[in-house]
Amino acid sequence: MVIEVAADGSALGNPGPAGWAWYVDEDCWAAGGWPYGTNNQGELTAVLELFRATRGLDEQVVLLCDSQYVIRSVTEWMPGWKRRGWRKSNGSPVQNASLMQAIDTELQDRNYRFEWVKGHGDHPLNIAADRRAHAAASAFQAGEPAQTGPGWTRIIGKKDSKPINPYEAPTPAATLFDDVDVPVTYTLELDSDESERLIGRAADDGVPVRQYLQTIVRDHLAHSSGNI
Fold it and tell me: Which residues sit opposite 21 in a β-bridge?
């Protein structure tokens, strides 16, 4: 038997108040959040919490995710990061390493596969997970309790599970302009070939394009002014 589960994350402002959710059906879903995080952290957390909730499950779990970063991190890049002590090929630390390490632990002896679905498209499970993740983020923004859902309620083929440890939300990485008191705007003009190369380099490093651009700008400013 195959069980399809959608996992999604949300961050208002990205980064900002963040939420996560996984969804099977109206009777089997979970969600949560924290005051400050990113979309990627939200979706990674949804994946982690799903695996924690289904420890001992015999059936294959098919995870439906709309983030290529999350899918490729787990299925392609993680083995290399792990061999290098959770560092990228250039020696820099892996982003969201604590989440990646926790997911790697949960994946041992698990029957699973990932499938990409278009975000904000017409897949009903993705829509349901997205709404719940967004609702959790909105609740934290408003300072209200988030709806956490019934959790994993299915017992088909499930062995005795280990206790599920509470998950502490990761401390988000500092953004480029955390210590800047005035608005700063950068304009980057690229042709199609340059855009493709930029996207490819970000993928090679296992980071979102926005984060890759922030690193480029930070390095440029550091060399220009010497005080950043």
Answer: 8, 31
